[in-house]
Amino acid sequence: MTRILGIDPGSLATGYGIIDQHGQRLSYVASGCIRAKGESLAERLGIIFAGVNSIIEEFLPHEMAIERVFMNKNADSALKLGQARGAAICATVQRQVPVDEYAAREIKLAVVGKGSASKEQVQHMVCVLLSLSKKPQSDAADALGVAVCHGHKSQTRRRMQPAKQQHDGVTP
């Protein structure tokens, strides 16, 4: 069993989602949002860092996956988002949990099957894939989507490893 922490970073609300992976089966553990209500960006980053640290302490994930920053129209927003990602990554690395990063299109493709899927489609498919009876809030659903994407990708990497080792002349 592998426990995966998914993070959807934001400077005001950072979503988190935790799933367990048993082979190809994924199961829901927890999800929610870290609400960063500090007055300055530095205070909010501190809240995100402490919140991720607390989540790791409580749920003991084996791996963490986070959405990559993409550049949209507003450079200031992208910079703040990047700093929120940095706070979450630093909290995770400090706890010696490996971190993987995925682009938004890659996450949507893994969860919905379409890289241009809407937030509502991701939210719906997270419910279906994890057998949830009610929809998690948007940021938490996105974080669960990141965790699901990582679960699928890491499962594929593990299956490919023996083939790669044989190809490289290494016996498993």
The proportion of strand residues reads 15-25%
Shape assignment = globular
- DSSP E strands, number: 5
- Which structural category fits the helices and strands? alpha/beta
Task: Please characterize this protein's 3D structure.
With 172 residues, this protein is an alpha/beta fold. The protein contains 5 helices and 5 strands, in the order βββαβαβααα. The radius of gyration is 16 Å and the shape is globular.
Task: Summarize the model shown.
52% of the residues lie in helices and 22% in strands. It is α/β, with parallel strands linked by helices and 172 residues long. The mean pLDDT is 91.
Write the topology of this structure.
Elements: E1 2-8, E2 13-22, E3 25-35, H1 41-59, E4 63-67, H2 75-94, E5 99-102, H3 104-112, H4 119-129, H5 138-167
Parallel strand pairs: 1-4, 4-5
Antiparallel strand pairs: 1-2, 2-3
Helix pairs in contact: 1-2, 3-5, 4-5
Give a quick set of tags describing it:
5 helices; five-stranded mixed beta sheet; globular; 172 residues; alpha/beta; 5 strands
